[in-house]
Queue: 3 jobs
Job 1
Amino acid sequence: MSSLQHNPKASSPVYKQIPTSRYLADLPKGAYYQGDYKLGLNFYSFSHNLNSWINGTTDGAPPIDTMQVIRFAKEAGFDAVDVTAYYIPGYDNSTMPTRPDEEIFGYAAQIKLLCAELGIAISGTGVKNDFADPNEERRLLDIQRTKYWIDVAAEMGAPVMRVFNGAVPKDIHQFGWEAIARERIVPALKECAEYGAGKGVVVGMQNHGDMVCTADQVIRILQWADHPNLGLINDTGFFRSFMQPTGLNYDWYDDIEAVLPYTVNFQVKRKPAGSNTDPFIDLEELFRRIRRSNYRGYIPIETLWVNGDENHPQQLPEPPYEQVKQFLAQLREASEKTKSYS
């Protein structure tokens, strides 16, 4: 049973944000980094096409399999791939794996072998989970599932396991953000981080416009958890005010910068306010902020489409190779242009 206690004041407000400016004021000031970054491809960039393959249906999007995406990434000039676990046959979002262990771990070994043969790194992997769910059984199952895929990550050679914090639960107004974060999310993250430490896999929680939308929420949760094997997947497309549908009129770049000391990996999106909004990310501004930090890890991209987008994968005769390569070229150009401080 949950130990959460009803807070009669929690609904007004459910969460009071500490301004990002307070965190920025405490950021360590280091030398401006002028070197190269390793750029990666998150598999979700081909989600429509990979889903066609994994589900055995075209559904309007030409199928592509995991090994083909790895080969494409190498040919396109990516330094690394983030092999989302969704695209390992046997993965399921709500149950333990649906295929035998030997088949799943065998496939992970094949991924590792192919990447080694091609000379491309594996920057991470990830699962779908909900550590904020009011149902304790659901949370315990997601912890068990995460541990299983940490084992797979270790077999594959993925250094980081990406996890979510969870959707805003139906009882948020009853208990408030902090109580749910402290008593549901933090213990689950700590348990997974401790397990990952024994396997050599860092656990990275991702801000995803859910229970974690702001730099303040990121930092508070990570400080409450206080585990050396737990960090942040810095998702540039999901910083926004809590419980808001988009990040329009929000200062995404300050939040991105404020959490850089906690960042263990990235997901760079084309649209910082959300995939269903208009503004495009200023990649030079992004790299200038990263270069002022001590972050030296991978910087993977994740291209997303919503219905009505031009060149939506379901409207193309082949997977969106050119669109992904174009975003990579923009990222590389911005990285090069920002090497000299200005």
Job 2
Amino acid sequence: MVNLFSVQIENDEFHKKIGGGLPKGTFGLIIGESGSGKSVVCQRMTYGLLKNDVSVSYVSSQLTTVDFIKQMASLGYGVEKFIISGKLKFFPVYPLISEVKKRERYIEKLISGRHIFESNVIVIDSLSALVKFDINPDSAIDLVSFIKRVVATGKAVVATLVPGEIDESSFLELESAATFVAECSLRKFGADIKNTMTIKKYNLAQMQYQKQIAFRVEPKIGLVVEIAAVA
């Protein structure tokens, strides 16, 4: 579809579960605790976008460039050629800050980083870790206004949030402004514990989607959607 950024790859049917891909104009939030699968979902989306010739900017608050390349390779999502070609722009936050220095004024730095927002899709993992020292309800409104201007040009922005990492008012401001909200969690299925993504809001959906998606992560294979229904 013209109004959709496809994330389809041969390995899985994740694209079908989320309605084919990311609609243009999406401001998406993926919410969840550490280890719930937020980053893997972002990395799977990123690889699918790149395979469909969609340019991506990936901002990481945890990984260096080398770590990111290794992480993607461990999932079977090789991205070296996309980085070399410029189709994927990776922006690591970790090497730019001291371990003992707070991450201050990162909302201002993010908004002023125009080159980050030149790509078709911008992924920020994690937004809450990036801005937690300087976000408040007023700055959250400024950030939302900026993101809304970005996606109004036909781009998409997807960010991850950890509950409790930013104040509740700022969290609600971001969540209410988002057009796509999904929550990742760990759930027990029999003797196994699986990752589950629950889609709570999807205002711009172009196709039918599944509200709850159970998945696991396999080395060299990546995100694998579970066939069994989520109870």
Job 3
Amino acid sequence: MEKVYQKSSKDVLKHYETSEEGLKQEAIADRQKKYGLNELEQSEKRSALEILWHNINNIIVYLLGAAVILSLFMGEWVEAAAVFAALLIAVLTGFFVELKAQGSVESLQKMIFTTTKVIRDGETQEIDSKDLVPGDIIVLEEGDAISADGRLITSSNFAVIESALTGESEPVDKDAQEIFEEEQSIGDRLNMVFSGTAVARGNAKAVVTGTGMKTEVGQISSLIDKKTAKDSPLEKELHKLGKVLIVLALVAAILVIVVGLINGQDMAHILHIAIILAIAAIPEALPAVSTITLSRGMRIMSEHKALVKSLSAVETLGSTTVIASDKTGTLTENQMTVERIRLAENRKLEVSGRGYDPIGDLTENGDKVSVTLTEILNGGQDDDALGQFIIHGLLASNAQLRLADDQSDDSDRKEYQIIGDPTEGSLVVLAAKNDLDYTTLSENGWKRLAEIPFSSEHKYMAVLAETPYGKRIVVKGAPDVLITNFIPKHKQDYWLDQNESLASEGMRVLAVASLKVDEKTDLAETFENNFDQFMGDFVIDGLAGIMDPPRDDVKDSVAETQNAGIAVKMITGDHPKTASVIAEQIGIKNHENTMTGQEIDKLVDQAGFAQKVRETAVFARVSPENKLQIVKSLQAEGNVVAMTGDGVNDAPALNGADIGVAMGIRGTEVAKETAAMILTDDKFSTIVSAVEIGRNIFANIKKYVMFLFSCNMIEILAVLLTIIFSLPMPLQALHILYLNLVIDIAPAMSLAFEEADEDIMSQPPRRASGGLVNKAFLARIIISGAIIALASFIIFRHAYAREASLEYAQTATFTFMALAQLLQIFNVRNPKGFGLNASFFKNKVLVLSLILSLGLQMAAIYLPFMNAILGTHPLTGATWGYMAIGLLVTTVFVYLANTLLRRYLKED
């Protein structure tokens, strides 16, 4: 069948072999078998084995495995057991952390049980929404969630909130009588309803035309790439680092073999040394430290209301260069709010307050004003233009203000919701800010007698009301309609100018007008059946400038984000003018540069599209495909893109971005299913906190990677020097493993607890070339490693030359290396200076880890059973004396070398 919105409701009923009486019960089972359940396909959850394999499939883990095999081959059972223990810690830590994260997300994403009213066998009944089938007749009323796509067959004052699907923040008026000859976009199909939306007002019936994956929501869901997630910047860096490790281990082993053969050493001895060097080249603690650092970041983000699905996603935000954010519900409250009031005599008022929260002030020329019933009743209604406007707006609104679900009267921070039309709700909230509601009006003499519902044809609604000052007709609706049809012509220009002024600010404008009417017996009948006779004599009470306001935290968060060198781009289905005004209010740079979905469709395959996307700050009236095209264009230019959103229409872009961020409270299930991170408080500021946490995580990862690699470099170069000078091994294999797995691991892990630099959010994002492995990083590792390795070699040669035993010289070298590596922490933890400052004592974990490592090294030297295992000897005071001098000189030289490197080598 052709597109159903191009057909009459009668034709659609015929096509689906149904009627307004609904389907016969016996037809339901066949249709469910044919069409399936009314559910979206869920992406497959990773099994426990897949998560385990993800943690095993790591080049460093492979190298650790190779080290285990080599140690077993050489008969070094203790060495093999130690390395295997490190391997297990690395793999299982990541496994359990990711398994727990997936469990948390699954519990958050459980589908809420929903029901739908349908007509079957001529009777209205309530069924589980998943049991809907094409041909069902659904009954829709104010506040209902719509669970399937359908063609309207009847409608009365019917409007639907479609923001989750289209990004439009305003309700869309629907009409069952509409038939379209030409193709229409989703937002313009006014005779259709769609799954995932909600009824704002009125009532209707519709024949179901699409369920499950055949709905518009399902079609958008099918755009989502369900392939394996992309590697994060950190994972890419660790892969690169793994390759460097392999090369380093091979080069070291080859050098040992070549030098050994030249010096005529035994091949078995040479191979043993080569294996020791290969083990020394592998930072066995790196996988465990990386996992613990990222899992700690995951926990911190969770405490900051950001639920992360995988360890790698924790770091990705820290590398973000662009945040592409949905507007409605992410940057804004998704709560229509009166912000401006225009009255006669050029009176202009501002209204403060947060969304539907009935707390706020009215100010005029900077002075606070208020409305009370006592003043109105004492002075006469006509003497209070502001009170008249607010009360009449309330009288002509059907929306209801309530505490949100699961809220109680004694909650610390109350959350409110509007049942009904959000635009009408803004007038109800305005009244509530002045302690006015329907009950209060009714108790004081205001009462609605009759109503003419809003219609998209007339663009107004009217009520006949009893007031303390007699009967009145109140009309609320589109300003151009009320101004040109309801008031005398000589008063129109003023109000048209006021309307244009508010509209130019990107606001939706509502007009409220009233008319005092005579007390005649047939007034109600005349009102309902001959309303036109009243038109022309009304008075405009005022205009309301209504907007979905920015969230409280957004402006400061956007400023902080842009100050951090991260571009913020708004992507919305809303009107370009409205979007641009919001962008200006929250401080997005270049907010005046806008681009529509139609323009994207024309330019996407042309040269210059990427530049246009780069320069544009606000994308409006865009489709889900457009959002994904924008994200891909930004990524093609080397950007790391974070996409935020809450609607079904955001899902493809959330999936395509480097990290998708979904709103946990207002977000749709499709959005939360797709995203890599879920904000449990829906705040944009939480993203900024996550960026800061991610940046600090990368900075700390860089610190401990530099620490571990410089320690490995010390061991490798010290061994090579002794081989070159034909000396015995300065260390035993167990000494290297003890250094790598016992001495170094606690201080390395403690670097994960380093606080962020004060200026971390004033720095630009790291460039694509600014990863872990770059020339500055390698220079610092090689030079610091070489200095300490040379000092270690001197210590060994001095101890061995004094005719001490080889084991004693090895113990001295082993101890010197351990202490030099612990002191290396201070040259690593502060990349801009020496790290022994006040901030050192703030990291209590680091202080304790250094004490622990020092104690473990002393145990290795002075405990007899450790002497037996490690082949160590207690050291004399004289040895401690010259080692202390060597440690002081070495640490100073490393600090001076780093200072020179910072001056001459710009670290990427």
